[in-house]
Amino acid sequence: MLRHMRRQVFGNPAPYVEVRAAAISVGLDPGGSECRALVDELLQAGYIQRYPSPSLTANGLYRLTDSGVSAADEAALVEAGRRARLNEGREQ
């Protein structure tokens, strides 16, 4: 879900993300307990922060932190490397 949040802010000056869109993109129910637990994990890890306005946070708007951007970018690099190794194995 963090990588999907990263895509939301790519190229935008403000690092605000919508949990609903990220949850749907990874097949989670945005109002479900699994999504809430994942958001709590991202908050605890410091990857996202609550929006300054409680009403906006209540509607699923959060700020993607610099550490969240870094973690998402690192995960994307690891995934790209894994895919490259898989493709090399198929070519042999």
Summed up:
The chain has helices at residues 2-9, 19-25, 33-45, 54-58, 66-91; strands at 16-18, 48-50, 61-64. With 92 residues, the chain is mainly α.
Describe the overall structure.
The chain has one domain: Arc Repressor Mutant, subunit A. A three-stranded antiparallel sheet has the order 1-3-2. The chain is mainly alpha-helical. Helix 1 crosses helix 5. The chain is elongated, with a radius of gyration of 15 Å. The chain is 64% helix and 11% strand. The longest helix has 26 residues, at 66-91. It has helices at residues 2-9, 19-25, 33-45, 54-58, 66-91, and strands spanning 16-18, 48-50, 61-64.
- Contiguous runs where pLDDT drops below 50 for at least 5 residues: none
The CATH architecture name reads Orthogonal Bundle
Text of the CATH class: Mainly Alpha
Quick one: how many beta strands?
A: 3
Number of domains: 1
Label the overall shape.
elongated
> How many helices does DSSP assign?
5
- The averaged pLDDT comes out at 87
Across the major sheet, the strand order is 1-3-2
Order of helices and strands: HEHHEHEH
Class from secondary-structure proportions: mainly alpha
Helical percent range?
55-70%
How would a crystallographer describe the biggest sheet? 3 strands, antiparallel
Distance between the termini: 33 Å
Summarize the topology:
Blueprint: H1 2-9, E1 16-18, H2 19-25, H3 33-45, E2 48-50, H4 54-58, E3 61-64, H5 66-91
Antiparallel strand pairs: 1-3, 2-3
Tags for this model:
three-stranded antiparallel sheet, elongated, Arc Repressor Mutant, subunit A, 3 strands, mainly alpha, about 90 residues, single chain
